[in-house]
């Protein structure tokens, strides 16, 4: 991508908010997931990143996490396969002995000019990746989460505003927000916090991989219609995940926190 997404801000200091925690991050090889992995590593967490087949990106993320002084597993596979999700959790436990944080972040997006032409197979694929995989990972990890653990799902501003030509993606992210609210209530007695982050327009590989060139052309045109007239960089989204993963958010459950540069206000 030109320019490359920015995954780390300069000159940030660690405060050890996640010292010796273990986080599974789906889609952790690039974009928001990578930025979250870097920030969590700075704060003391070991990381397991799950990705489809972007081996070079995953290796780059792994190397940077190690430079930050933490361990990092890279696990390639299709999260629409429930057995694979169970294997990810089992492998993470075998290497680290615990899981404290689950970040359901990986997603697919389809550009659909006319919903009448949307193939059923593509619609199913969107929900398998964006929604079903959340269920699969939550089911797999839940027996091992202890009080104080956190599940953080990635929703989207699209779930609330709707975007033209993104009906299937918007619907899937709406399902993620609804899952977050329901699960937060059911797990509150166990001391497991469940929340979601809903990013606005963010410069990640999902954008050029999924949308036609006229949607972004070059970075400067991939703007935000709100008061902050630009798309977010991944590192600008990551701190919300840190807040929701840390003890600072001990009284926050069932929330979908929007980080969108005031897009609603545009």
Automatic annotation (TrEMBL):
GO annotation terms (biological process): bile acid metabolic process
Claim: Oxidoreductase is one of the keywords in the record: yes
GO MF entries: oxidoreductase activity, acting on CH-OH group of donors
SUPFAM superfamilies registered for this protein in UniProt: NAD(P)-binding Rossmann-fold domains (SSF51735)
Alphabetically ordered keywords of this record: Oxidoreductase
Family, per entry: Belongs to the short-chain dehydrogenases/reductases (SDR) family.
Protein name, as recorded: SDR family oxidoreductase
Organism whose genome encodes this protein: Paenibacillus whitsoniae
Taxonomic lineage from the root: Bacteria, Bacillati, Bacillota, Bacilli, Bacillales
